[in-house]
Protein: SEC14-like protein 3
Organism: Trichonephila inaurata madagascariensis
Amino acid sequence: MCASKYLLFLYVTTEQLLAFEQLEEIFQKIFACNRNRLLDFQKYFQDSSYSCRKMSSFLKVTIEEQAVIDELKKRTINYVTPKTLEDETLFYRFAKDGKIFLSSISNQYLSQYNPHLVRGVSTPYSKHLAWRKEMRMDTFLTDYKPPEVLQKYFPTCILGYDKEGCVVRYQDFGRYEVKYLWSSVKKIDAYKFGIQVLEHDFELSKQRSKKTGKLSTKVVYFYNLEGLTFTNASDKKVIETLLLFCRTYLDNYPERLKRVIVFNAPIYFNVVYSVLKPVLPPIVIEKIRCYGHTGWKEALLELMDADELPAFLGGKKTDPDGDPSCKTFIRYAQRIPDCYFLCNIKKTLDNDPNAEKLNIARSSKEELYFDVEKGGSSIEWEFETKTRDIGFAIYFKENALQDPVEIVPYGRTETCYGPEKGYIKCKKVGIYTILFDNSYSWMYPKEERRIHVEYFQVH
């Protein structure tokens, strides 16, 4: 890639040009054996000036601010996957969120102002990249399959777009009976489903930007709490899940929130809000508006055109038959049928004659080892616990002297309502270790029922 090409696309200074040339040389060494990935990164650098100019025009980024964004990009690009780079505002959002006051910093004081950048990666950004890898976010929208009960009965839907083209999501939480939710899904699935909803909204924003030519990155949320009971508002699992979700959102989706409108809120909504508020930064609290039973329709109309807002929310939009409740596209809270309750799911391994029992004492763990002698072989597993959850992971090392590498990420898995199944392809020859971990439990031993783990060798 020649210097004239840099100048054509990036308009850089001499110092920046030298930095880019050094960076390109590093890329060529790292990806010499992987030409396709190298081309992905080269294409990104070629297209980045256009993306940055487009982003700058919509976000009104100054030259000084762009210098900070470019520095964060330069120092962290090695850790970013091509899929992550599809987000044009990625570096802007984390530079701003990472306590880098873009309007008050110049390029020459960058190192002095933020030492995390000098070491290579800003703290919030590095945590985000680690979280994306752990959650496998590059393929999360397509790979994660939420339980059917969440897809059918979770009261959330897209209303459309606000006056500035931002996605608007509606949540009918007030009448939702959380006791039936927790009877039907594990807490981890409720959490993952929430992440999938977020990713879906941002994908819609990306598609909207491509269609209109106007950058749209933020989302508006309407929460209808009509009918909320004290029991639901003070539910321990609800509050724990909301806290986890809030922390995840703040850590991994900075500058994504445009507005939250909470309406029809009863007085005991303060129970939930008083718990959440301490973890919310002031910039987020400023974007939240809470209303009782009056004043909220005007607030919604400030954001959405009346023709786009459903009639029951104060707009003019109705179903084709004139129904103002818009039941054809609004997902209302409704009772979850008993057939989805986890207690009704039959345990498949409990009476299986081929299943082996593995008793794991409290504060201990058990490991199963498999010597794979031929690449392309596979390992399948199926297990369930009698009560509570169990830690599970799979590690690999080529020989006994090497440190193991995690190939199935560690996670605490609830299998007391049904078995956990999985499969991996053994690409390399070596030792594969399956871990069942109960070391975090000081009080409860675990009885693990499992079908023998099968190893299929390629011939």
About this structure: The longest helix spans residues 187-212. The radius of gyration is 26 Å.
